[in-house]
């Protein structure tokens, strides 16, 4: 079974009050993340500063001893606010995520500049835990389901 990733931050920052203002101020912000069998999916909002832009996610499973970049793809139609664009990403995580801590930050390149959302310097962190298949778990006492009758 796929690993369970537990966010160590609110998984839907885009639902919090003032989100669009934070995008306006910082140029890029994580909108939401969700773990699924394919990996970690998420969305990023960026301030629409120019037509050409590149959004990616830099992530690690080993405390930045190594890292990888995953591209984010533009998601039309744009948000109704008229000033931001949405990009979606997928971090393809395998069994290695089960016992690791995933850390990531979002990069936005536009008009010769580069902007990062690294969760206010803490990176976005998710703790991985292997899912327990149904029917397993803590060992049970073989007599735990037995009835005891007192007469």
Automatic annotation (TrEMBL):
Lineage of producing organism: Eukaryota, Metazoa, Chordata, Craniata, Vertebrata
Residue ranges occupied by any CBM21 domain in the UniProt entry: 20-127
Pfam families registered for this protein in UniProt: CBM_21
PANTHER family attached to this UniProt entry: PROTEIN PHOSPHATASE 1 REGULATORY SUBUNIT, PROTEIN PHOSPHATASE 1 REGULATORY SUBUNIT 3E
GO biological process, one term: regulation of glycogen biosynthetic process
Gene designation per UniProt: Ppp1r3e
GO cellular component: protein phosphatase type 1 complex
Entry's Gene Ontology molecular function annotations: glycogen binding; protein phosphatase 1 binding
Name of the protein: PPR3E phosphatase
InterPro entries xrefs: CBM21_dom (IPR005036), CBM21_dom_sf (IPR038175), PP1_regulatory_subunit_3 (IPR050782)
Native species: Piprites chloris (Wing-barred manakin)
């Amino acid at each position: 079974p796929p690993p369970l990733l537990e966010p160590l931050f609110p998984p839907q920052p885009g639902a919090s009050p003032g989100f669009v203002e934070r995008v306006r101020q910082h140029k890029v912000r994580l909108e939401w993340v969700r773990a699924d069998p394919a990996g970690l999916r998420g969305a990023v909002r960026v301030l629409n500063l120019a037509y050409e832009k590149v959004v990616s996610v830099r992530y690690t499973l080993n405390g930045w001893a190594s890292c990888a970049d995953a591209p984010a793809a533009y998601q039309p139609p744009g948000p109704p606010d008229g000033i931001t664009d949405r990009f979606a990403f997928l971090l393809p995580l395998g069994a290695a995520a089960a016992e690791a801590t995933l850390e990531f930050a979002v990069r936005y390149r536009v008009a010769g500049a580069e902007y990062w959302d690294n969760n206010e310097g803490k990176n976005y962190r998710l703790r991985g835990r292997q899912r327990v298949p149904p029917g397993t778990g803590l060992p049970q006492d073989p007599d735990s389901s037995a009835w005891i009758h007192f007469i």
